[in-house]
Amino acid sequence: MTALHDISVGPIEACQICGSRNIEPVVDLGHQAPCDSLLTPSQLREAESTYPLRLVRCIDCSLAQIDYAVAPEVLFHREYPYRSGITETLRNNLRSTAFSIIDRFGLSEGSLAIDLGSNDGTLLSGFKDRGMRVLGVEPTDIAEIAREAGIDTRQAFFCEEVGREIAAERGKAAVVTAANMFAHVAQLGSLIRGVEHMLQPGGLFVTESHYLLDLLKTVQYDSIYHEHLKYYSLKTILKLFEYYDFTVVDVERIENYGGSIRVYAMLGRGHEAKPSVAAMLAEEQLARLEDASTYEAFAGRVRKSRVDLQMLILEAMANGHPVPGIGCPGRASTLISYCGLDAQAVPYIAEQSTSLKLGLHLPGKHIPIVDEARLLEEQPPKALMLSWHYWRPIVRNMRRKGLKSQIIVPLPDVTVAEE
Ligand SMILES: [Zn+2]
C-alpha cells in the first residue's frame, strides 16, 4: 500500500498521498532549472536542463503538490550549496527547536536523537548540548562540516535500508527529526518506514514543512521549486500518517521559511492528541483550504505580483539604474525565473561574505552572486530583497553597514520598504 508514497522520477500523474488522478492545475511557473543548481563560471557556456514547475492540487484529499519529480541526484548534488547554520536567524531557530522538543515531551539525557537531512549539524548541536546522544544523516559534503564541528554524521540518502542499519548499530531513538526536508523526499514511503525502524515505542517523529496556509496567504509562489514536491496542510499530513504506524499527537506553527508547521507524530496508533491538532484543523477549514476559489485567488495574486515587480524594475532601468538583488535563498531562483529578470535588470545578487554561493551564478538567467561589499560600494537607488521572508532583520543589518538604497520587497505584494 505504501509504495504509493515512493514517487518515480518524471511526470507525476497521481496525487502523491492518496493516489487519486483527480488533480487540477493551480499555477504554472514554466520550465525551470533546479533552483540550487548554481553554475560555476566555466559552466556558463554549457547546456542546462530545465523541468516543468507547476503547482497542482488533489481534489480528493486536497494535497497541493508539483507534478514533476526531478531525480534526487540532480537536486541534491554533493556540492549542494545550502548550509543551515549560516544565517543567524535560522541557526537560532534550529537550536531552539531541539530545546522545545526536549521540553515539550520530556526527553531524557542519554537518549538518542537522529536528524535526517542534518546539514551542518546545527539542530543536533541543540540536542547534544542538553546531554542527548546524536546522529545526523546528510547526503551532501556538508556532512564533513558537521563532523568537524563534532556532530556524528553519516553521509547517505536516508531510506528504509539506512534506517534498519542505524537501528541495528545504534539502538532505538527517542526522537527522529526531519526539519524542512520532509516535503523534499520522493521516496517518502521508504523514509517513513525507515523512521519506524529507528524509533523506540512511543518515540517521536518530528517533521517540519512549509505550511500551505502561509504559502497561500503570503503569496509565496517563490517557495515552489523542484525540491518541494508537496505543500502540506495539517489535514494532508494526517492523511499521510494514516498509512503508517503513527499518531499525530501535536502540531505548532513556526516562523521558519516564511511559515511552517512542526508536526509531532508518535510511533504507534491510538495515542491521545493534544488540542492543538483539532484547533489547527478548524483553522484550515475556516481558511477554505479545500475550495477551488482559494487557489484561483492565489493564482491571481501570483500573476499580479509579477506584473507589479516588472513595472517597478522597468521603471528603474528606464532611469538608467538596474536593480541588484539582496540574498540568494533557493527561492530567489523561482522568482527571478518566473518574472523573467535577467542580468540587465538584476546585474548581481549580493550575499554576505561568508556565503558558500559567492562566485557562482543563478541557473537560467546567469545572474552572478557576489559579496555584498559591491552593493555597499555602488549604493544603487533600488535593490530587490530576494530573502523577503526575512527582510526586516536583513535590511536592519544592511542599514547598519551603511546601505542607503531603497529596498523593493517583492511579496506578498510588491512594496518599497519604509525602513
Ligand atoms: Zn490526494
Tell me briefly what this model is.
The protein is of the alpha/beta class and 419 residues long.
Describe the structure.
The protein is α/β, with parallel strands linked by helices. The protein folds into 2 domains: 84-290, Vaccinia Virus protein VP39 (Rossmann fold, 3-Layer(aba) Sandwich), CATH 3.40.50.150; 293-416, Rossmann fold (3-Layer(aba) Sandwich), CATH 3.40.50. Helices cover 33% and strands 22% of the residues. The strands form 4 sheets. A 7-stranded mixed beta sheet has the order 8-7-6-9-10-13-12, with helices on both faces. A hairpin with a 5-residue loop joins strand 3 and strand 4 (64-66). It is globular. Bound molecules: zinc ion. Zinc ion binds next to loops.
Topology:
Elements: E1 10-11, E2 23-32, E3 51-58, E4 64-66, E5 68-69, H1 72-75, H2 88-105, E6 112-116, H3 122-129, E7 133-137, H4 142-148, E8 153-154, H5 160-170, E9 173-179, H6 188-198, E10 199-210, H7 212-217, E11 230-231, H8 234-241, E12 246-254, E13 260-267, H9 275-286, H10 292-318, E14 325-326, H11 330-338, E15 349-351, E16 369-371, H12 373-378, E17 382-385, H13 391-400, E18 406-409, E19 415-416
Parallel strand pairs: 6-7, 6-9, 7-8, 9-10, 14-15, 14-17, 15-16, 17-18
Antiparallel strand pairs: 1-5, 2-3, 3-4, 4-11, 10-13, 12-13, 18-19
Helix pairs in contact: 2-3, 5-6
The structure holds zinc ion.
